Each structure stands twice: as structure tokens, then as C-alpha cells.
Model the fold of this input.
Amino acid sequence: MGRIFSGIQPTGDLHIGNYLGAIRNWVKLQDAHENLLFCMVDLHALTTLPNPQNMTVWTREVAAAYIASGINPEKSMIFPQSAVAAHSELAWILSCLTPLGWLNRMTQFKEKAGKHKEQANLGLYSYPVLMAADILIYKTTHVPVGEDQKQHLELARDLAGAFNRQYGKDYFELPEPFILKTAARVMSLRDGTAKMSKSDPSDYSRIHFMDDPDTIVLKIRKAKTDSDPIAGAPEAMENRPEALNLLGIYAALSDTTMEESCRTFEGAHFSTFKKTLADQIIAAMDPIRQEMLALLKDPASLDRILKKGGEEANELASQNLKEIKEIVGFLRV
Ligand code: AMP
Ligand code: TRP
Done:
């Protein structure tokens, strides 16, 4: 594998969907690869105009979550996106190669803008172009994300191709999505048909990295389920999205398959299963929470790590941006 890049928006408290769909997989990749970059994508977060204090707090919190989950700053570059200006510069160049028709197809924009498309800001609309720039500025080859980001990655591939065609050069490799199957899409604890999301108004819809054990037990106890016992195979629970979601979380945390967890708990009622699930979540997440608390107690040290990550990333990005500017024909003065 060549280069790996991924990022998360500092727009709120991280949840177990971010962990299972993204961060945990990054840690696994780190063991076998070099050249990894993990970003807190604050420019993307700005599309929702968080208040400045929250932006700062959440950026540190996401960084602490990366490190506490096992991203090693000695091996991987961890930095805020805004620390590397080349992302924004390449985004502009790519935006001139983006037909509006491509952006009009993006389902995330449609979801986020909702009925008020005319009031939505331009940043929200061009969000996927900036994401493509994040990826391409490092000539990234693999992007580990959850399933919801698949369409944006397709656009990044299309833009890499559009650039190469426009300038008659094989400059960008097409970046590959890297989406693991188990828990690629963790659903809300209140509604098994909706994605677990930072923006859901209900705190009970998700488990946060910062939830203490009692809160985890309570949230899992309150999680929506049905009164039927667990079936021996996932296919037999097709119309029970909440049941499938909880078993999926269990399977992901225990590194087994859905099939295996269904077999293990066949016939059990959710009241029993939920106790085991809560224990499993606490065992995985509480050490991470403790480490995050320790990191956040010393923001100056944390910021030093991010500064170093930003400097290293800047070096890579500015070299590539120089080449890109030459290809485009900008006069160097
Ligand atoms: P976001 O919170 O939208 O910035 O997402 C950050 C990363 O977490 C991306 O790789 C997403 O694909 C992943 N992610 C977010 N929500 C979920 C979820 N409910 N299930 C699985 N992955 C998720
Ligand atoms: N759009 C991604 C999300 O909401 C975050 C993101 C921004 C990202 N730039 C990226 C992910 C580049 C991977 C690569 O989850």
C-alpha cells in the first residue's frame, strides 16, 4: 500500500460509529504500513459554523481520541487540516474541473441542506471537492472510511481522472476506498434504520468515547429492541434492524462475524444480551476514555504533537503542490 489518509470532522463528541467505522481500522493499518496521515478536518467542520470555542475543543478532543485509540504520532502524522494551506489551494484547482452535475448528485449535500437548498452555504456544496483535495494533495492511494463516505470517494477518483485527462499526464493515482465490512455502518440506538450520527439530537442514540461505564450501561439498557429472542442467523432477523445493529456492534468489538455472534446468543433475550454487550463496550472504550482524559489535561503537549504532524504534512503537501502548479501552468515568480 502506498499512502493512507483519513479524517474526521471536529463537530461534536465522537461516538462508537466513528470508532468502529473508521479509527479502529486506522490503528490496524498502522501496524502494517508507513506514511499514514490522520487529520481533524476543521475546514470541513466550518461548513456547519460551530462556535469558535467548540471548534478548538472538539479539534483537540478528536486528536486525543486518535492517539488514545492507538494512532502513534511517531508513525502517523496527526494534524488539523487548516494547518496545511495546500488543501485549500488544491481544492480551488479541482473545483475548476468539477462539473456542477457531479456535485448535484451528492446525497450528503441533499441530506444536510434538506428543504432549504437556497440557504445552504457554498462550502457545504463544494465539501466533496475539498475532501478530494485532502486526499489527492498527498497522492493518497488508500482511504479508510465508513460506508457513508463511499460516494465522496468516488468523486475524488473522478476528479483525479479529470485532472489527469485535462493535463494529459498520469499525475494522480486513483485513490481506493478501504471500507471494512463489519460495522461499516453503525446505526442509532433509538432507530435501527438511521445512521448513528453526531448530529442526532438524542444523546441516547449513540455511545460517546467520553461516556463513563454507568452511562454506557444505561444507554444500552435503553436501546430500542424487540421482545423476540435472538435468532441463530442474521438472515432470520432481516426485519429487526435494532437487533441486527446491537449484534453488529458486539461482533465488531469481539472481532467475530455476525453469524458467529448470532450462533453464540441464539435463543437469548435482549435483556441478557444487553448486559454482555455493555460489558464488551466498556472493556473496549473505557481505557480509551481514560487515556483521552489524561491527554486533554495537558493541551500544550497535545498541541506540540499536532504541530509536528502539521509540519511533516506540510512538507509533503507543498512539494506536491509545487508540481501541480507547474502542471497547471501558474507562473512562478
Ligand atoms: P464524521 O463523524 O461524519 O466526520 O465521520 C468520520 C468517520 O467516521 C468517517 O470515516 C465515517 O465514515 C465514519 N462514521 C461516521 N458515522 C459512522 C457510523 N454510524 N458507522 C460507521 N462509520 C461511521
Ligand atoms: N467527509 C468525511 C466525513 O464526514 C471527513 C473527511 C474530510 C475525510 N476529508 C476527508 C475522510 C478525506 C477521508 C479522507 O466523515
Q: What stands out?
A: The chain has a mean pLDDT of 95. Residues 203-294 form a domain with the Tyrosyl-Transfer RNA Synthetase fold (CATH 1.10.240.10).
